Amino acid sequence: MAGRSSTRAGTIGFLRTHKALALGMAIVALVLAAALVSLVWTPYPIDVLSVPDRLQGSSLAHPFGTDQFGRDMLSMLMVGARTSIAVALVAVGIGILVGVPLGLVAAARGGWLDEGLMRANDLVFAFPALLSAVMITAILGPGAVNAILAIGIFNIPVFARVARGGALSLKSREFVLAARVAGKGEIRIIAEHILPNIANLLIVQGTIQFSLGILAEAGLSYVGLGAQPPLASWGRMLNEAQTMMALAPSLALYPGLAIVITVLGLNLMGDGLRDLLDPRLKRRVA
Amino acid sequence: MSGLFAIEGLDVAIHGTPILKGVSLEIARGETFGLVGESGSGKSMTALAAMQLLPHGAQARGRILLDGADVLSLSEAAMCRLRGRRIGMVFQEPMTALNPVKTIGEQIAEGLVLHLRLSRADAMERARQLLDRVGLTRAKVAPERFPHQLSGGQRQRVVIAMAIACRPDLLIADEPTTALDVTIQAQILSLIREIADTEKMGCLLISHDLAVVAEMADRVAIMKDGEIVESGRTAALFANLQHPYSKALMAASNHVPKRPKGPPRTPASHGTLPILSVRELVRSYPQPRRSIFRAAEPFIAVDKVSFEIRAGQSVGLVGESGCGKSTLARALLGLEAPNGGTIEVLGQDPNAARGATREAVHRAVQVVFQDPYGSFNPRHRIGRVVAEPLHLLRGEISAREMRERVAEALVEVGLSEADMAKYPHEFSGGQRQRVAIARALVTRPKLIVADEPVSALDVSIRAQILDLFADLRARHGLAYLFISHDLSVVRAITDDVMVMNGGKIVERGKTARVFDHPRHPYTRMLVAAAPRLADALAIRAAIEDERTGP
Predict the structure, then answer these.
(1) Can you give the pTM of this predicted structure?
(2) Which chain B residues are Cβ-neighbours of A177 within 8 angstroms?
(3) In what order do the strands lie in the sheet with B299-309?
(4) How far apart are CA B299 and CA B296, in angstroms?
(5) Domain A2-285: which topology?
(6) In a designed cystine with B463, which of B221, B255, B306, B322 is the match (CB 3.0 to 4.6 A)?
C-alpha cells in the first residue's frame, strides 16, 4: 500500500505549501464550530431581553459587547452563524440534488432534451439571482425556509452546467466506452464512472456556491425577507444596527466582519481545493 | 571549429534529478543528425536545452556552441534574438504549435517582422513565398486561412515554413511526423530533407522511429536514460551496433512474434460458423445543412463493408486516420448502431438481441483500446477494472469465481494476483496495456477487437505486447481484428488483412500477399510510403560508400 500512504503524505505536504487553503479551512472550521456549539450552548440566551445591560462595550462578560436590547453580541453572532450555514447548506443541497441529475441527463441523452434543459438554464441565469429571490420571498412571504428555496433555485443551473460539462468530456473517454462494451447501462456508468470523476468539480463549485449562499442570505435578511425574529441572522443584525450607527458603530462592525471573513474563508478553501483536487497540479507540487 | 553546432558534455538536472548526463554531439552545415531513443530518454530535453527552453527548475551545465559561441551563457534577451532567427524548431503536434486565432500568413510573418525588421506588407509577401516553398501554393491554401481549416499535413508544412522563415542555420525537428499518417509522413520528411539540403542548414532530427532516422540522417546518436550510448555514420553504425541497448532496440524494431506451429486450436463446437459476419455495413453521420431547402448529404464513414472472421483467425484492418476504421470498430462493438447492413456475432444481431442472448453476444467480443492512460477509470483499483466485463455474467458466477477469473486473467497477461489492489497510475504504459488485455480476456471471448493497441508504446514494449497477443492466440484460439495504421505491426501479427480507404475496403487478402504484391493503387501508395529500416539502411550504405570511395 505504498501508493496510498504516499498520497496521504502528499496531501499534508500540499497543505503546508498551500497556506491559503490551510487558512481557509481554519476559518471555515471556526465558523462551523461556533454554529454547532450554539445548538447546545450560548454564553447568554438570545431571546431574553435585558434592557439595563444595553449597549455595553466589550468586557470579560461580553467580549463583543451587547446590543440595544441588552443581548450578548457573541451569542447573537454564534446563532447567526448557524442560520447562515443552515440556509446556505440546504440551498447548495437543492442545487446539487436537482441540478446534477439534470446536467447528467442532458449530457447522456443529448439532442432536443439537452437543448431544452440548457435553454431553461439560461432563462434562470438571465435574471439577477438576488432580485428574483426578493420576488419569490415577496410572493411566498418572508422567512428562512422561503429564503432557502429562493437561493436554492438559483443554484440549480450552476450545478447542471458543471455536471453536464464534466460528463460530456468523460463520455467519449475509453474507460466509459469499455464499460459500455461490458454491457453496463447508462445509470450504472454514471454512478461508477462519471460521478466519481466529476466529484472534485462539484466540491469546488459547492464551496463557492456556499459562500454566495451566505451572502445572499445576509442580503435577504438585511431587507427583512430572510430569517425572522427571534432567530438571529447576520444580515438582520446589520439591519438593526443601522439605526444605532452613530451611538454604537461596533454593532454593525461585528456581523459585517463575520460575513466578510466567512466568505473569504470559503473562497480561499474553494480555490485551494481546486488546486488540491487537480491531479496535474498535485503531481507538480509533490 | 568545423561544426556549425556542437553540444559538449551537457548535463541537465531538474530539481536535482539528473535528466541528461554528459551529452555531446556535433552537427556540420548541411548535415542531418538523428537522435533516437525511447520516451524518457532525454531526446526532447536535448532540443529544449539547445533553445534554452528548459522547464522551470532545470539547471544546465556544459557547453552548447553555435558557430563557436556558447549559447548557455547568453542572456534571455540575446536568446530571444537567436530563437527563430538562427535556430528554427518544428514540433510534433502541428495543431498545438499554431495559434488558432491568427491566420497562417500572420503567424509566418510574425518572426520576420520581429527578427528581420521587415514591414508588415513585406513580411506578408515573404510569407506567401514561404508557403509556396513548402508546397502550399496560393491556389490551394491562401495565407488568410486559419489553422483549423487545414489538414494535419498542411499544418505541419506551415510549422516548417515558420521555422525556416528567417533562414536559420540550424533546424530542430522534434518528432515532426509522429502525429501524421504514413503517406503524409513521407511527404513531410522529403520536404525537410530538400529544404535542409538546398539551404545548407544543419538539421537535428529527433525521433523514436529507427526507420525514419535511417532514411533521413547522415549521422545518428542513440540515447538511453539521458546518455548517448552510441553514435556514428548511419549505415556504419547500424551495421555494427556495439552497445547492448542499441542491439535490443534494433531487434525490437524488427520484431516479429513467433507464429504458433500449425493451425491454432479451434473449438470444434463452432465448426465453420463465423464468429463475426458483417454484410454491407453502412454508418453515416448527418452534416449541418448548407441550405434551408435541402438537407445536407450525410457523411458516410463506413460504406457497404462486408467481411467475416472465423474462430482463431487474425485479421488486420489498415488505413489512415479518418478512413472509418475506428467507426467500424465501434459499430462491431455495439457502441453505435449501423445505418444499414447487418452485423452478426455467432449468428445473432448484437443490436437486436436482448437479455441472455445479448449478453452471450457481448461476452464473445471484447475490446482493447489504444490509449493505455485513458482506458481505465483512475479511481478504480485494477481488480475492479478487470472485473468490469464480468457484469455480463452477473448471476451466473459467484463473487469468488469472479475474483478467480480476474486473477487468472492477470496471470495470463504476465501480471500477478497482487496487482488487483493497485491503481492504474501505479503501472507503466506497457503494463497498463497488459491490464487492458486482461480486461478483454476475463469473459473468455472468441474475438478481441484491438484498436491501435500498440501505437502509444515504445518499440521494445510494443514487441512484448505483440508477443503477448500471439501467445494468447496460440493458447486460446482467439480471433483478432487488429486495427492499425502501422503496416509493420499488422504484418507481424495477422494472417489476413483488409485495407480501408474512404469508408470502403479497397483490397483484402493474405497479409504477405497484400503487402508484397499490392494490387490496388491506394495499397501500393501506402506500402511505398511506409519507411522500412532495411531498405533505408541499404540506400544509406550506398551513399556512404560513394562518399568514402575514390
Answers:
(1) 0.80
(2) 330, 333, 335, 367, 369
(3) B299-309, B276-285, B340-345
(4) 9
(5) MetI-like fold (1.10.3720)
(6) B255
